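Narrative progress, year one. The postdoctoral researcher (J.K.) led the effort to move from monomer predictions toward full complexes, under supervision of the PI. The following entry was the first complex the group processed end to end, covering 884 residues in total.
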Amino acid sequence: MSVTISDLTKKSILGYSSCLSATDSVARIVSGVMKPSEIISECIAHIEEYEMKVGAWSFIDKYRAINEASELDKIKPEGPLFGIPFGVKDNIDTHDMPTAHGTSIYEGSQPSRDAACVAGLRFSHALPLGKTVCTEFAHRAPGKTGNPWNLDYTPGGSSSGSAAAVASGMVPIAIGTQTTGSVIRPAAYCGVIGYKPTYGDFNTSGVLANTPSFDTLGFFSKEIEDMVLIRRALLDDSIPALLNDSLKNVKIGIAVEPYWDNACDLNMSMIEQVESLLIRAGAQVLKFDGTEAFKNLEQIGTNISGYEFARTLSHERRCFYDQLSPILRDGRMADGFKINYSQYALSIQEMERLRIKLDDAMSRVDFVICPSAPSTASLGLHETGSASFNMAWTWLHTPVVTLPIAFDTKTELPLGLQMVGKRHQDDKLLTHASAVLKYLFK
Amino acid sequence: MSVTISDLTKKSILGYSSCLSATDSVARIVSGVMKPSEIISECIAHIEEYEMKVGAWSFIDKYRAINEASELDKIKPEGPLFGIPFGVKDNIDTHDMPTAHGTSIYEGSQPSRDAACVAGLRFSHALPLGKTVCTEFAHRAPGKTGNPWNLDYTPGGSSSGSAAAVASGMVPIAIGTQTTGSVIRPAAYCGVIGYKPTYGDFNTSGVLANTPSFDTLGFFSKEIEDMVLIRRALLDDSIPALLNDSLKNVKIGIAVEPYWDNACDLNMSMIEQVESLLIRAGAQVLKFDGTEAFKNLEQIGTNISGYEFARTLSHERRCFYDQLSPILRDGRMADGFKINYSQYALSIQEMERLRIKLDDAMSRVDFVICPSAPSTASLGLHETGSASFNMAWTWLHTPVVTLPIAFDTKTELPLGLQMVGKRHQDDKLLTHASAVLKYLFK
């Protein structure tokens, strides 16, 4: 058993050709070296080559994308994502492609409008190539997607297709959603960068809710700078470029109890190796004490997610109960009927207090690190793995990034380093993530 | 100029026949005195008689409702709203009726699922009669609805049709939404009870967002007990009945600065009369000091609503910009492009601090009162009136009720008394509202 620190975005897997990152593509389009139609053709070629085995997509509309790209060929590049192909998780509405929420109940169902995030990326002339596979209602029943690193292993979920599409070079960027660990876990399992923003920053209009108090969008890429372009497109163009910061005297907390000490030996070894590299880079590494913020967190959070999820899916519960998977019906939905309104309302207030306690704990560090998942992806496509390492950060509303920086030398499956920032300081977190990547690999 | 304190739910207006309240209807159905089909027939008769002049509905599906009611006739009553007809604001999705969001852009558009609130009411065997008129995207451009008290006057907005339908006896209850004053204002203008819950309590899945940080559902009725039934149907059956409380030693704060001292003389006079009646009932009435919670509130809130609203409607901005009204484009949407992301993120944090300051100020009273709107409804259907008296409470996430307790003796238009409770204490607020109504009129 051993783990090797390695820049997985540069590692070729199973013979997949990588596509250009969004940042590189935009640079080539702006400088006139490549045209949008050439960028999209490369992605489509990869889809045609790998999709049969990976199964990342629930719907692909290559002809529309090709037509739109050739229209862009004719005009002057403008907007942060001009000509960039992207994937859209299938719980996010698109006015010109069906949205099935990962269930046969809504197969072929056509929304009347684009979700705000899809329209926002289109505004900056990015081109959606299709809809990516989502677990059933973004809960746990998996779709058809395999892990591009080893197709017998889970890609994670619920944003399974978005992670796998980016990992196998079919698109440079993809949109996902996270309620517990639905972006960070699949990104870690698939060896790509995943970013879950501060709760509330990105508009979720047109995204099917799961647990509204926790739901956020999230994004996948192979280059950290791509996240800046996405933020510019969806937030506004005032988002700063990543600074070329050093890690000297940066305070880094290592999260341990009560969740992260369940990590497998490989993950423990990854954290130890990262720790000594960060210390060598001049960072101050200390144990992160979040005890106060994590008190009863799991119970409180399960009360909230159960109560809200069961109500979000009231229509499906009423009209399609028999078509819901047992894991959904007997899992989070059943949880929701074990607590009553006053327990829910108390949990909401208690969670808000925990958030303030985490803000307080976070004030003693610049960012926190821990593994992105308890282990590498597990064998089999029947389940999507554990979100236990992501839950606290999602529920407490902090921004999180996972970096694909290590792999198991035996299985050759990826491991992710989870970096957690302070609420509303996503730009700083992304800058630190860039610095960590640079220090580890350059 | 004079104002008369009067129970407007008992006052017949313009010759409309009132329909039974939800509470009364359920009692009659459960005791076998009436059948669901008789309840719905009465509502349909009122719609056929009044709708031509009031214009409360954008879509009516009476045959489906009649069929569903006759199915209910055959079974044993169960659920808090068995056989109760209701109206659904047209920015709320229904799987079997179109949802147009108050704009010709989405005329006839058919969602694939029911919003959580619609499915939740249907679960308790309530029957949606149709979709009620909504201003354009729940912003300010009005629909066709007139104020049932005087059809030349605005019913208020954005939940115009829901308020007017309940006011004119077409349905006992209706669903609306509020982002600033879209439930409380039309309820006050139309002389019915309006209830805007604590932010977050009611699931908004399937409701078109406006400003996600402020959006809540809201409800209209003519009897305060009806709100308990709605809460049982949508939250859970643990919601308590209203206690028969007295107002003895209850601490009531009167909100004055910086918003409510702009009230018209009629409203001032209403508050004075209510104050002396409440004192006579044994309540302690004091001036409510919310200064700290209202500091820069308007600027902070406008930053948030502008930023979020402009992004919620990204698809419409991209594809239908010319079909948006000038008041929407040049109003809240334009506001949204005047601030950048960091100003927005600061405003979100500042608003959260103001909420905690309001919690603190509210801890010194049991509830707060003020007028529900600066004046009675204004003449003309070209605008929907000012939400300035509702803004603070909505943005600060407190529960609010408006009671139809007074009218202008000259114009015979209603005035509403706004009651504000503490966050997550809606049951207590509704109990106090019931006590206020009982003391004023019984």
